[in-house]
User: Fold this.
Amino acid sequence: MNVRVARAAWALVRGVRCRRSASSFLLPPPGAVDVEELLRDATAAEEGPREASVRRLPGQCSVLLFPGQGSQVVGMGRGLLRYPRVRELYAAAHRVLGYDLLELSLHGPQEVLDRTVHCQPAVFVASLAAVEKLHHLQPAVIENCVAAAGFSVGEFAALVFAGAMEFCEGLYAVKIRAEAMQEASEAVPSGMLSVVGQPQSKFTFACLEAQEHCRTLGIENPVCEVSSYLFPDCRVISGHLEALQFLQKNSSKYHFRRTKMLPVSGGFHTSLMEPALEPLAQVLKAIDVKKPLVSVHSNVNGSRYMHPEHIRKLLVRQVVSPVKWEQTMHAVYERKKGTEFPKTFEVGPGKQLGTILKSCNLQAWRSYSHVEVQEADEDLY
Assistant:
């Protein structure tokens, strides 16, 4: 990604101008900045002859990882407010969402921030505000970015960073997604169970037996599915609460080393989320989606997005499909033996993606950094 393209891509986030309140539009607010126009302007502003394309060494490149729901914490954003344009991002979010996201992010309460309808927009905005901090402290990281990936809702932030969506339109899509997923989760008592297993763990067999247990309780069409592949022998299983409780009670039978219920309101990334598909599909049809300026990898299959319709299709499918994060990490960091790994930056609240990366690829993790969003730090200077 050359300097001109980097400027153009990140200007999409930094040039936020949402003029209409959330209550005044049914479709997303119009994008204020056009990617092609930015590219033309950036090229025209460049003095002298166009520089030759420079092939950077792998160790000089960077990868950005965007966290998802569950990483939110009261106080996130406090360490970002002194950086240019961050308050503008939150002001624009206020207009799109219709409530003060910055106030909720800084002061909570946590139980309100944890609601799906709030935490998805909060993580989205905090992550892009963290990119603004990174751009201010280390602009070369943005200029040399070769790939991005986001976990679940983090994929929307990755696409905005890469210039595939304008900030306000991306946030509006996240708003609709969060509201639809919240409604779907309230229809059926469901949840998500983190499972650390072993090579001999029987994840599929365990899910089938948990479904059968639910049938004996009179539950029709029970759901119990692997909803996230995190790292070797670690999965998240989602579905009816009764199924997850069964798995916890019988964990030794399936060679599970550790299980833990996640603090989420529903069985995300399973068929229980099917009611959320149509609202998201409709809003994605209405917004302007472009081809990313850097590689963005899809949660559905780990592959790079190729064109706008590909993005629309897979973002909808992602809601009812397992997050293949382990597979995505292998795709992003695959390289010949002896080749240096890029520098990796987790942009957003928490360090969960760094922890997962360590278990997926220790060598890649050695070049990992986290961009702090709660308190100011000096790590990136």
Observations:
- Residues 11-15, 19-53 have pLDDT under 50 and may be disordered.
- The beta strands are 62-66, 145-150, 190-196, 224-231, 234-240, 258-261, 295-297, 323-324, 343-347, 368-371.
- The longest strand covers residues 224-231.
- Residues 116-137 form the longest helix (22 residues).
